[in-house]
Write a structure and sequence with these properties.
- The protein is of the alpha/beta class.
- It has 22 helices and ten strands.
Length: 504
Amino acid sequence: MLHNISDILLSQLSEFVTTYMGLHFPKERWRDLERGVCSAVNEFGFDDVQSCVQWLMTSPLTKNQIEILASHLTVGETYFFREKKSFEILKEHILPELIRARSSTEKRLRIWSAGCATGEEPYSIAISLDKILPDLKDWNITVLATDINPRFLQKASEGIYNEWSFRDTLPGVKLKYFKKINEGHYAILPHVKKLATFSYLNLVEDVYPSLLNNTNAMDVIFCRNVLMYFSQNNQKKVIQNLYRCLVDEGWLVVSPSETSHVLFSRFETVNYPGATFYKKRLAGLRDQRPGLLDYEEVINQPLTTRPELETTESEIEYRTGGLIYEISPPSTDHRPPAPNLYTEALTLYEKGFYSEAEEKIAILLSQEQDEPKAMLLMARVYANQGKLSDALELCEKAIAADKLNPGSHFLLATILQEQGRVEEAVASLKRVLYLDQNFILAHFALGNLALRQGKFKESEKHFKNALALLHDYRNEEILLESEGVTAGRLKEIIKSTVMEETFV
């Protein structure tokens, strides 16, 4: 029941969800906030909304409780081919352009539905690809679909929908791509369903782009009706990260109500009849730092990509290949410290300046051509630019120079997986565990691969192994080879990836 919460309490609640969840509810949306909280009362075990709100704002909430609240405050209601103009442009302009460019080289397309809700959007993308690509089986297609709500992801992965999901869809779509399973319910056909991969991801908190969660080197990102839930600062943060996730000339699609010249100033605005798309400019990174001062600001920032965490000595040692660099106190004349090519390149890479990082590493490799850690960093740079063949070649060279480094084999497995070479990726992950049986991310990756192949018992085994190893880590510790993911966050991701009863 609505209108049970006073405006004073709604104002406090609005500030609370902005601070702790990044969701934005200005006064004109307070009734939406009230509606969402009222729907969550019973799930939190309360009989009245006032008591529930007071508890929310005064108790230390777990991540699971915050995600439950988020699932009630965000609208998961969607339908197939929502905002038709966007899909018409995708089918008639964007995809043909990408297909022409890739047909003669690497037949590879990567599209991300960020905030996929119950899956209608990513499946609409998959159907569009099936319609336009007669040789679909010859392509390495990724349709990544992520959301913060595990319940939405569960429904999406099942791929079963009722009539309401087809409310503005041409009848031919339902007839061709779905099978009626009972009165009023339809299951998407397997050859389309397998194109989409569903994963948990929090756009505000999680690290991306990252090879670990497959958010790198995207050709197209759909992020529609999502940004409106975030505060302005979080909107800027998310848009910056999405920009870094795109390859040069990649596309960002938002809803018509979310377009903004200010927020998307780093992109080129492309106006189509009835819709606005945003394109990552080829020289976009250089445009953002025209002078020497901007460059120095970038390379002298801390290595960590998580501003709330300090970079520890052990982290620097790992991320610089075992070398510790002395950090001298600031000099009175404010002169910058002597440059180190590897640490400069690493910092540029972490800030998304891939071309600039590549230039630094190229100089380093010309001086020390068999330097494994530089080759591995260059492989990561290439992978984040979508240059998988080059990334694979450098990764294999690094392994040849240092066969006993489990991190090299893990990176190789990640690149192989992205190329669609799943069995080879599994073999590389097993080599990682042969070299280091406590390599948490290898267990996690094997669990994900087994889950996507329908091998649920095997998946459960790997996830349990990862959780057991994570038990010995502090929640705030950054995991090796994770590009900034903490132990606590990985625990939450694993528990959100599979059904709770798996871990009972």
